[in-house]
Amino acid sequence: MSTTARIPIRSPEDVWTFTERNVPLWDVLEFFPPDCIGPRGPKDPPRPYDVKPIVIETDMGFSFESDIQYGSWILRPCSPKQPGMMRWCKERGLEPGDTIVFEALGERRFAVRLEKAGASA
Q: Which of 16, 10, 18, 24 is nearest to 96 (CA)?
């Protein structure tokens, strides 16, 4: 398995979705441990396994713990004021042509960084 997963930001609509909703992970789901996928909401039945969260370390100096919501395939949303994916997207300055890069740091630890358009990998 690759040590990185990349999500391109193709359009202004992607920027809006990532900053106002969340980052869909369906194209990179296999990058994350299968047992980090939790139920969609509190009224949904539990998953048929123990859900174990992952830790995301950002390039902005904060980290957060999360699972991935079943069905919506996003990191568990929280207020954009709290450490989480939405806060990172809002504060990071996403633009079309940029790429969100997840890097595996360990079995349950990942880094996220933004690769600006035109920057080399």
A: 10
Q: Centre a 10 Å sphere on the Cβ of residue 65 and count the other Cβ atoms it contains.
A: 13
**DSSP letter (8 states) at residue 75:** B
pLDDT higher at 78 or 39: 39
User: Where does the pLDDT of residue 69 fall: very low under 50, low under 70, confident under 90, or very high at 90 and above?
Assistant: very high
User: pTM for this structure?
Assistant: 0.89
What are the tokens at 102? 């997840």
Q: Which CATH number fits domain 4-39+49-103+111-115: 2.60.40, 1.10.3210, 3.30.70, 2.40.330?
A: 2.40.330
* Angle (deg, nearest 10), helices 12-20 and 85-92: 140
